[in-house]
Amino acid sequence: MSDVPFFKMNGLGNQIIVADMRGTSARITPAAAIAINGRAETKFDQIMAIHDARTPGTANYIEIINSDGTLAQACGNGMRCVVQSLSAEQGRQLFTFETIAGILFGQEAEDGLITVDMGTPKFAWYDIPLNEEFADTRQVELQIGPIDDPVLHSPSVMSIGNPHATFWVKEDVWSYALDRFGPLLENHPLFPERANISIANVVNPERIILRTWERGAGLTEACGTAACAALVNGARTRRTNRKATVTLPGGDLVVEWLPNDHVTLTGPAEFEWQGRLDPTSGAWTRSEAA
Ligand SMILES: N[C@H](CCC[C@H](N)C(=O)O)C(=O)O
């Protein structure tokens, strides 16, 4: 088997596998992703596959794979893990990457926290994408539960590379059965490419509490792009400022929507252990501690 090195990492408990695919033209197959996710030690939310650069001026091309084997356009927590693994290897702090959604920047600071520039948000219904025309995506018609007394309704929707719906709630975010509503909303006909589904409680203009059902991965401890979407949707509906702390089940991220329209995400990344995996079958072995 022609196996490649990988790191098991996490970003605020978002389970990430960083696979080093540099120097090979192989790709991680959907079957491999499903097999890797099927073993308890490597159950993951996303695989971040580091490939050789395709575009001059970028360090690497990053492919992002959900645990159901589908591709994701963006993953904020995973990008921080990629930055940390490459910066440990190369002693550099600043990186430019390419993903299917475009060019991204990442930087590790002295305090070990990592900031990734997730690019610019998109609000047009056809960019998110939605299946139905909405002139204003700050609030769209979508609800779940009894027609006259919906449990969740009128989310703000946008894309930060990947599609997100943010449902605003006044009650404790833990009082909602997101495990039940998540799959229904993720696969709702309004979203032709499915969507990541979040419930957000704005505590004050500088703090949001957030839980997310991730497209292709389910309930997670943290979803970086959902935190970006919650902040941007919060700011454009005047619920929050353009910079806020977003508290996820796994911990806090700081999100800022800059004057140049870019969204940055700052938080930790944690190395756990390393091994080697076969990108075709997903078979893996754990390496002795380096
Ligand atoms: N965990 C990721 C998001 C994965 C998105 C993925 N579930 C999709 O859009 O298909 C994050 O930290 O941003």
From TrEMBL:
State the EC number(s): 5.1.1.7
Assembly information from the UniProt record: Homodimer.
Q: SUPFAM superfamilies in the record, alphabetically?
A: Diaminopimelate epimerase-like
Q: Name one GO biological process term.
A: lysine biosynthetic process via diaminopimelate
Q: Which NCBIfam families match?
A: DapF (TIGR00652)
The organism's lineage? Answer: Bacteria, Pseudomonadati, Pseudomonadota, Alphaproteobacteria, Hyphomicrobiales
Keyword Disulfide bond annotated: no
Question: At what residues does the UniProt record annotate the site feature described as Could be important to modulate the pK values of the two catalytic cysteine residues?
Answer: 164, 214
Q: What is this protein called?
A: Diaminopimelate epimerase
Q: Does the keyword Endoplasmic reticulum apply?
A: no
User: Which residues constitute the catalytic centre?
Assistant: 75, 75 (proton donor), 223 (proton acceptor)
Give the family, as the similarity comment puts it.
Belongs to the diaminopimelate epimerase family.
Which is an annotated GO molecular function term of this record? Answer: diaminopimelate epimerase activity
Q: Which residues cross the membrane?
A: none
| Reaction catalysis annotation | (2S,6S)-2,6-diaminopimelate = meso-2,6-diaminopimelate
Q: Which GO terms describe its cellular component?
A: cytosol
Location of this chain's protein in the cell: Cytoplasm
